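explain this.
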Amino acid sequence: MFSRRMVFAIAGAFFVFCSVILISVSDKHPDATEGISSVPISIISPFQDAVTGSITFISGIWRHYFDLVSTAKENDALKKMLSQAVEKKNQCVEIELSNQRLRKFLDFQKTRMFQTVSAEVIGKDPSPWSKTVIIDKGQSDGIRKGCPVVVPEGITGQVVSVSTYYSKVLLIIDRNSAIDALVQRSRARGIIRGMSSEECTFHYVLRKNDIRVGDEVVSSGIDGVYPKGLRIGYVSGVIRRNSGMFQEVDVTPHVDFEKLEEVIVFITPAEYEFEMP
């Protein structure tokens, strides 16, 4: 009828109940229960120790749990503060770099006799065959088609299309770009054309002309687009064959087009000669 486990549980409960009764009686009549009182105490004490230990253990776990929760919240707060500090530092670094570029632009503009407009690059053509960028200045700022675009390091390109507030700039590394140029040292002339990479080629340079690797190449001012004396790049390779009229000359631009962020647009006619700094 009853399982063995239930019988043991009932018997244990009954025994504990009787032991509690005996302890209570022994407290009131110690002389009458002097021999008997030690029996229930010796039996109940292990149970009391187990219960006390369990309560202490659970209390410790509970306390540690709240400590962990508090530590986790504090850790989250510290992570948030650290993230904000890193972001603020990053913003300060970007502002400092922007200020350095703007100082170079201002110094460059002070040395020129041209009316200029500073613009920010807001887009690039993703095509590997077309090297153009979009700037955030247009007709409302005085920019027109054909305006030369430069940075302090050298020529960047020219404006090929204009809207009211934006303009498209063809970079000198595009295959459709052409600049009448000359070697500053020997005055050898030719046409700088893009290669749709980070390099340019110097076309129509006569084989008799003295050109060396490292020579500076500047604009000649003859094409009517770029003023004379603007830096383009330096000669990075020369092949002079035994036959033919022209040399094969490679030119590396001074401008790093991968890092192009701001530019200067000349909006006055290019009839003036540039003085090299």
